[in-house]
Design goal:
The chain is of the alpha+beta class. The protein has helices at residues 14-23, 73-89, 152-156, 161-182, 185-194, and strands at residues 4-11, 30-37, 55-61, 94-96, 100-103, 106-118, 121-131, 202-206, 211-219, 225-229, 234-237, 241-244. The strands form 2 sheets. Strands 1-2-3-7-6-5-4 form a 7-stranded mixed sheet, with helices on both faces. A 5-stranded antiparallel sheet has the order 11-10-9-8-12, with no helix packed on it. Helix 1 (14-23) links the parallel strand 1 and strand 2 (30-37). The chain is globular. It starts with a strand and ends with a strand. Bound molecules: biotin. The site of biotin (BTN) has 19 residues, from helix 1, strand 3, strand 6 and strand 7.
Length: 246
Amino acid sequence: MNFDIKHFDSIVSTNSYLFELGKSGACEGTVIIADEQTGGRGRSGRTFESPKGNIYMSILLRPEKSVDKLHLLTPMCAVCLVNAINDVLKKKCSIKWVNDLYYNDRKVCGILTELSMRDNIAQYAVIGIGLNVYYHDFDKELFNVAGSLLNEAESSACSDKSVLINELINSILIGFNRYYENYDVNDFMNEYRKYSLVIGKKVTYFTETSMDEVDVIDIDDNGCLVVKNTNGEVKAFYDGEIRIKI
Ligand code: BTN
């Protein structure tokens, strides 16, 4: 895949913008990058705080993969991100099922994958990545949750902040291309499990209507969270949210 990168100083949301480009036929590999977003979006209709100093990037795909494997684009992307951050910064992040990266007990990255479907066939996919790189004082409600890869001292020691941002973007895109072309599910899911923050932990699993204390046993090759509940029943969850005591 060849990447065609368009850069914006500021944009409402790289995902929303690229989703519209997808409708008008933009090619696979179109990438939108912005220094800040004024209306960044997260999963389940949440907002994604998007100040300057971070990476906001969306990638357009026109996947010929079978539709039942497309939800694995998110874990695949998470693995690419962990590898790129380790290569460039020598910092080891963990993955909180399904789409969050954690560093030093703080969420430093979220992934939002959106599919355009017609007659049960994916027309295109937009994968959005929000990666907090430089130190930022997050809003009160995110204060105990969100963090950045670089602490305050490391951030102020950087004279040209864009150099590191560009290195990370390059490394992410190179890795992404490699994993996407191969799409070896067993291979990237093995890495996903290796980087998992939740396997072997007690977590709260919740949906809009329920909440359960469970032990996470595994994450299978289908991306499902395999858990044992307090009655000893083993279940596999395809979707939902978990909260983990860190
Ligand atoms: C989440 O944590 O719930 C997912 C956050 C995804 C944020 C990224 S930033 C780039 C792209 N544009 C958006 O509006 N959202 C994604």
